[in-house]
Structure prediction request, 62 residues.
Amino acid sequence: MLSKLLKAIPGVFSLRPSSDYSEFLVHKTAGEIMRDNWAGVGRRMDGAIKKVGQDVEKQKNK
Prediction:
């Protein structure tokens, strides 16, 4: 059953009038993707550290 489904998938997609799959292609190298991911982690950690610092200052001022 699964093999029949997998064989039918290309036929189903070929029925679509404009089969432009370019939006699904990866346009970056593995290194670029990893750098972007780690840069995002760094930004989130930086934001979290700043928030903790602000919360500590609020507690000190009470």
